[in-house]
Amino acid sequence: MADRPVRGAAEPPGFELPLLLFAGFRSLIDQLHAELAVRGHPDLRPAYGFAMQAIGVRGATATEIGRRLGVSKQAAGKTVDRLESLGYVERVDDPGDGRRKLIRLTPRGLDSLTQAAEVFDELRARWVARLGPDGVARLESSLRAVVPDAGFPVDVPGWFG
What we know:
Layout: H1 16-38, H2 46-55, H3 62-69, H4 73-85, E1 89-94, E2 97-105, H5 107-131, H6 133-146, H7 156-160
Helix pairs in contact: 1-5, 2-3, 3-4, 5-6
């Protein structure tokens, strides 16, 4: 970055914004997984969290999971296979269509999501301690103002892939 254009102190280069947002996201996710490991979920990876969100509390088919994650049915199936081997999901007959299998979260999978929600609350509290309640509220409000109102996407694995 040695050839960076000279700018005023109040005007950082545009590329820093996405990098800072990503670094903040990465920092939170890394801290989340370190704490989840301590709480009994050492094998969870970020992609697994997105997959379990895509499965949801009602369950989903591999095709639905792939679509929600923005990956192929085969890629979703590999992730589901790994989550199943770790005890986070199970395959059951779909009560609405006997030809399909439904992937559901197990009690262990639900526990990991509950634990993750608690850890995210703790991580947010740490940001409040560093930035102050008004600083975090302003940050969240500002992001809500510029992020499209389409809910929270879980297709990060497909987007990065």
